[in-house]
Each structure stands twice: as structure tokens, then as C-alpha cells.
Amino acid sequence: LSERVELPAQKDELYELSAAINELLSRIEKTIEREREFTSDASHELRTPLSSLRGTLEVLVRKERSREEYEEKIQYSLSVIDMMSNIIQQLLTLARMDSASDLNKQKKILLPELLDQILERYTAEIKKKNLKIDLQFQPEIDTQVPEYYSNLIMDNIINNAIKYSGRDASIKIVLKEIDGHLVCMVKDHGIGIRKEDQEKLFNNFFRSDALNHKDIPGNGLGLSIVKKSADAINAKVEVESELNNGSIFSVYF
Ligand code: ADP
Fold first, then answer.
1. Which residue, judged by its Cα, is nearest atom 13 of ligand 1?
2. Where does the record place the Histidine kinase domain (predicted)?
């Protein structure tokens, strides 16, 4: 693929066609390179927990342990397995997004209805952390959005707002129409994001290593799914954030 069509000397139709073919070849080459990188990153992200799991189990079979130690190591192994299945689940979501033919993806929904469904899924977490969710929207909003992609976008953003908020915090979700376009803003008062990390947020597997972030489960694929879904429906996602001061994720549908 690194080969290119030789451009004719004369700038005629044949020249234009050759140039267009070369441009297409470059684009295909870039896509293949991106896929290669993604596969290699994904293998690395799965190999790390897998070796940790192997190490833990090897220690367990080497010699007799106390019941407490067995329980502790098994609990740890289960959490590593959960983490790996989350990565696999997210990778499948990313892969499935490419098969655009799915009729399911044409289905539309009213955004307030979708937000209600998403919040319902997080009832337990919201209750556990005693979060206050403030959902504001003009009742006359009747623009429908593509359900499949909008759900992936809003679910991941709301999940993050919940995950990265401390106990008793409040999260504001505002839905409004600006110049005929639907905008949904999710504002949290959580740990916030460093300036230098903000441009990397949507990269595959990126997680900020600031703060005590390591204890919060995640794999850095949520916002990749958000970005890919937004691209699929021509939506735009903007981030405003300050370390220790919370974040606002705005989606322009
Ligand atoms: P993760 O599974 O790590 O949450 P995401 O792709 O959803 O992966 O997010 C990437 C990173 O962006 C997170 O690890 C975190 O560092 C940062 N981030 C995303 N949303 C927020 C938020 N609301 N508050 C603080 N940090 C966030």
C-alpha cells in the first residue's frame, strides 16, 4: 500500500484521477495503521490483568494458605476478571458500531425520555453516594435523537459524572435548544481534569493519572465510545474542566 500511482506530467483528467487514487490510498493506509495500533493497545490492556491473574493463582497453588488468604486472593482474581470482561464488552461495542446496517440504529427517541432511562440504570450508585441529580429541560422540547448512539454518548458521560463525583455531590443535567439544535450539558463537581489531559480524553484507553484516581474503576474506553458515536450522528462534544473543581461535558446534537 505504500506504493503510489505515478502522476502524469500534464495536469489533465488523468492527472486528477491519479492524484485522487493516491489520496484514497493514503487514507486507507492511515485507517489500517490506526486499526493496527488499536489492536496492539487492546492486547496490551488485556495482557496486563491476565498476567496479574496468573501470578495470583500461581502463588495460591505453590503452598497451603490460610482461609483468609485464599478468600482475599480469590476476591482479587474475581475483580481482575470483571475488569477484563468490561474491557471486552467495551471493545465489542466499539467494533459493533462499525456495522452501520443494523436497523436498530435508525430508531429515534426524545432526549428527556432517554435521560430518564439512563438515570434509572444508575439509581443504585446515585443512592449509594447520596448524589443529588438536578435534571432541567424545557418541556416543549420535541426533537428526537438517534437512540442507539445518543444512549452510548449520554450513558458514558453520566456514568463518568457519577464515578468522578465525591459523596453528597450534586450533578446538573441541562437540556436546551440553541438555534434549533439540542444541547445537553452534564455538570459535575467531581475531581476535574488537568488542562494537559483534556485533549487526550477521547483517545483509546486514556486515563488521567492525576489525583487518587486509581481507585476509581475504568479502562479509558468510555469516551472513545462517546467520540465514535458522536461522529456517527454528526454531534459534537465539548469539555470544560478544572482540576478539583468539576467538569462540564456538553453534547451538541
Ligand atoms: P474511564 O473508564 O477511565 O472512566 P473514559 O474514557 O470514560 O474512561 O474517560 C477517560 C478519562 O477521562 C478518565 O479516566 C478520567 O481521567 C477522565 N474523565 C472523564 N470524565 C470525567 C469526569 N466527569 N470528571 C473527571 N475526570 C473525567
1. 207
2. 41-253
